[in-house]
Amino acid sequence: MTIRGWLVILLLILVGVGGTFAWLRFESEAPQIAGPESVVLGGQGGNVALELSDAGAGLRSVQVVLLHAAGELDLLSESYPGSTTQGAQAGKIPVSLEIAIEPDALPRAVTEAFLRVRVRDWSLRDSLRGNLAELKVPISIDRRPPRVAITTGLTYVRRGGSGVVRYELDEETARDGVQVGETFFPGYEMNGSRVAFYAIPTDTPDSPELRVIAEDTAGNVARARWPVVVKERVLPVANVTLPPSFLDTTVPDLAASVGIDASDPTAAFAQINTELRAANERTIREALAESAPERLWQGAFSQLANSKVTSRFAERRTYFVGGQPVSKATHFGYDLASTRAAPIGAAARGRVAFADELGIYGNCVLLDHGLGLASLYGHLSRLDVQAGDSVEAGQSLGLSGATGLAGGDHLHFAVLIGEAYVDPIEWWDEKWVRENIEARLPTPAP
Ligand SMILES: [Zn+2]
Fold first, then answer.
1. Model pTM greater than 0.70?
2. Distance between CA atoms of 129 and 363, rounded to whole angstroms?
3. CA of 392 to the centre of ligand 1 (A)
């Protein structure tokens, strides 16, 4: 072949390479922008999540601007490394962005805006500037917290005791209820009003703050107070000496059933009294997490008939073996002793949330009474109900017994509001329930 022939071939190769390069570098596929369809922001602002990608030459730049009637606000301007000859250095890795929007940076009158996102790639199109993609996300700004009008007056509530507050709201909420220290008690709709049952948990610090909290869907939070007097009280203290029969039989039996080593019964007791107790309390909270949104009960709770109180609410116990303290726990219920295998009736109307073996509580029934109120029946020898059953006040749940961590046949009875145990003595008291609960609930419109 002549030199001229070689040159022609070389030229053809160069044209081919150049053509391929140009075809690749002139790709017309625009970048992809994924983001929300619209966003509602509260006065405290929030983040908008965006995801950018480009399957062709790769991402080159992104520009995010907030457009509103009074002007615009630059939120982000970023370039990604690369070159017009080689495309993006980082290849085609998608980019995740969190764009923070602070309504305080905008004039107060602005309630509607657009988030405009512009992304370019490393293609040579558009006079070498790259393919352009644009996304516009409508943003609504709601700076106003819900209005809370509390209609409940002066309230006295005891440490370990229960209360209810009634209030009205002027908009939909994502969350409302009562905050007592660290504990939140959700509110419920009742006869066109809102009510929240709450407790003063026994371990809440002195003089806890009580607030009705209402958070709207944009995240604006209102806090409102009403006159509440928290009556402090001295909680009972007890020293409990564990008898040999308890350490020799009850503890090893319970330890074996839950896989705790009982070669040292005292150590096994301490483990049961802390770890197993904590696990059982978590199961109870899970079983009661979804309370019925309507009131299932009426009036006062009934106490086990002809029973003798052998332990009271919130008794702080220290357990002793051979004169030595071995473990501590707070007793959050009442122990009621009657005859052996006494029939145990529901303290009030409700729905069975749990009826099964439950560690220290033995065979245990949890009743949900609605609006966050629940009752617990422990150590039963027989269960007559199952989860999901509806029960009337007084209906048999089973027979008393000594299952779980119990020294003898008795009923362990407890009342809960939300996450907190409360003193059942108030709920057994017809006058207290009438004056502190029934009189404060909204009545149906005539
Ligand atoms: Zn008990």
1. yes
2. 73
3. 24
Report pLDDT digits (tens) over 73-98. 999 999 988 877 777 776 667 899 99
> Taking the CB of residue 1, how many other CB atoms lie within 10 A of it?
7
Distance between Cα 160 and ligand 1 center (Å): 16
Measured CA to CA, the distance from residue 398 to residue 347 in angstroms comes to 13
Q: From the CA of 307, how far away is ligand 1's center (Å)?
A: 14
Question: Distance, CA 147 to ligand 1 centroid (Å)?
Answer: 43
> What pLDDT was estimated at residue 444?
84
Q: What is the second-level CATH architecture of the domain 237-421? A: Distorted Sandwich (2.70)
| Domains 148-231 and 237-421 alike in fold | no
- Going by the DSSP 8-state scheme, the letter that residue 441 receives in this structure is S
CA distance 269 to 273: 6
User: How many whole angstroms from 334 Cα to the centroid of ligand 1?
Assistant: 6
Q: How far is the CA of 303 from the centre of ligand 1 (A)?
A: 15
Q: How many angstroms does the Cα of residue 197 sit away from the middle of ligand 1? A: 24
**What residue segments make up the domains of the chain, in order of their start?**
30-142, 148-231, 237-421
**313 C-alpha to center of ligand 1: Å?**
9
- Tell me the chain's radius of gyration from C-alpha atoms: 33
> Rounded to an integer, what distance in angstroms lies between the CA atom of residue 387 and that of residue 288?
11
Walk along the chain (446 residues) in steps of 10 and give the mean pLDDT of each run: 74 60 69 93 92 88 92 92 74 85 87 94 82 93 94 95 98 96 96 97 92 95 96 93 93 94 95 97 98 97 92 95 95 95 97 98 98 98 98 98 95 97 98 97 86
Ligand 1: centre distance to CA 360 (Å): 10
SS (H, E, C) 8-51: HHHHHHHHHHHHHHHHHHCCCCCCEEECCCCEEEECCCEEEEEE
How far apart, in whole angstroms, are the C-alpha atoms of residue 196 and residue 188? Answer: 6
Model pLDDT for residues 284-320, shown as the tens digit of each residue: 999 999 999 999 999 999 999 889 999 999 999 999 9
CATH topology for the 148-231 domain: Immunoglobulin-like (2.60.40)
pLDDT at 320: 96
Distance 196 CA to ligand 1 centre (A): 28
406 CA distance to ligand 1 middle (Å):
8
Secondary structure class of 160 (helix, strand, coil): coil
Query: For domain 30-142, which architecture applies?
Result: Sandwich (2.60)
* Distance in angstroms between the alpha carbons of the first and the last residue of the chain: 108
Report pLDDT for 368. Answer: 98
